[in-house]
Amino acid sequence: MSKYLEFNTPAIKQALELASDFRLKNQGITNLDRVYWNLPSEALYEEIIFRNEGKLAKHGALLVNTGKHTARAASDKFIVREESTMRDIWWGTYNRPYAHSMWSQLMGRFQAWAQGEELFVQDCYAGADPDYKLPVRIITEKAWHSLFARNMFLTTNDKDELKKFVPEFTVIAVPGFKLDPIADGTRSDTGIILNFDQRTAIIANTLYAGEIKKSVFTVLNFLLTYQDVLQCIALQMWAIMVT
Questions:
Q1: Which of 73, 105, 195, 226 has its CA 20 to 30 A from that of 242?
Q2: Is residue 102 scored above 90 in pLDDT?
Q3: Is residue 1 one of the residues assigned to a domain?
């Protein structure tokens, strides 16, 4: 049963129009109430206002409240320590290792929490170069986070392309999912945990949308290094500075 009871939300008729055949059940997220797939900005604005997630300012800007987190929770960021990351991550204060054995339990708790929830999905791309752009799926609890993803990453209106879309990395932003430091092995009840082996990140218990952007940038910074992309950029910047 919808948490909005008998009330249909403005975008209910558009919810599946731009859905990928690679559904959330393929990623282990099942028994949801409704999933809104690749809603355009106009529809997301309507959903945001309907759900009282934000308000429109005088000249049309969207005003939202991010709660207790008004910036990134850098101390709550973790990277799962496994074979692909063990030797190539600079572990420390801002790259805290997360036990590989804890990941399945964490995702199990998230999947249980998600039962009956409504979620938003944006299938988009990080990076413009066709040789390097990364297909990313942004799954959010909030409509305004879905709008943020559309503003931050490259989208497409091609229905056939979206139908065939398969993400190479997925970011799940669920501010309503509160972590348990004892059960989940985190520092607090907030966490940003990236798993490069499973190509998935979960952002829990924070409304600050910048965590979505930073998580994808972290993924690019790690994966593109193996293609000598960031090194080339660094060399170009150095050449500009010394000339």
A1: 226
A2: yes
A3: no
